[in-house]
Amino acid sequence: MRRNGTIKANVKIGIEVLLMPYGTEAFGNVNGEEISLQFIGATEDKHWLFPFVKQRLFGNEPVTETECKIEKEGDLRLEIVGKGEAEKRAVPDGVWTLPFRIHQAVDTRRPFSELVQSMAKQERKRRRKNEGRFVYEVAEKESDFFAFYYNMHKPTIDNRHGDSAISEPVDTAFEKLFKSGKLFLVKENGLAVSGGLCAINKAHRRLDARLIGVAGGEARHRQSGAQAAVYDFLLEWACGESDIDEVDFQGGEPFLSKGTVQYKKRFATTVKWPPAAFADKRVLLSANIESPAIKHFLLNNPVFLAKGDAIGCGFFTDETKKPRYDLAVRTPGVEFETELNLGVTSPSRQHQPAF
Known about the structure:
16 strands; globular; Acyl_CoA_acyltransferase; seven-stranded mixed β-sheet; BioF2-like acetyltransferase domain-containing protein
């Protein structure tokens, strides 16, 4: 009996080990507090979400990161599951369901002058200030592509994102984007200062803004309005094309604090689900709200929420801090807003990993 009991116990332990999800765990110190961040999901999904959250959580503090079996739940967990799995599982308090990514797109089935009136006030002011300063051309020479890629796009993403930069390799960009798409170059005093490379999706009558950059990756060209002019001109072009109904400014992480999300909302965008491969994924965000560092992260990083086929916004709050409505994304496609009160949310996080 003792031997059988030992065997049964070992089998049980073995099963539990097998069921432990494999993922990434990062450890760091925030204001004297040791905290952990976990990512559970496919390796190819990690770079779309984990770097942003890690940077916002730990800042510039040193972080130890390891790939391992996740034995216990950390202070902040990002778990990628399918839409169906997310809807089937009973998600308790302290766990929130987010889209894996969101897209921001603009309806161009209207005159450009009408679209401009729908832009944010700050964008209309910028346009008036820079009126006549920039012009654009649709470039078709191969040399224009390589100059854009190496002198604008590559230094821009390297300067802004460093090792976490995500882009298309030059050969792919040339074959899949440039040859069948459109390269917009913005010029000031005859010199190219910014540009954008777009794909054309004929089946969906859509222009997909894929790569962008400013000359030398220099911040002064963003500050001058040269980068924003790329968005202006490709929208103006699309409004004049009878076979283009929409410009898709592509995706972003499901956090309202993401800089590109805030930037793109200025251009009369609609929040949308991403293409099918990403649309069927969800993020289960769970948190140890007893941790001051985790609570600070949540309070300052409101999220997009997924509820069935609807996308909404969730703003964390407690008895000491008001919701970050300064980051609100109140554009078409956002169907609801809700406050997520950390002061009353149960700290119990008993959901089981999907693996």
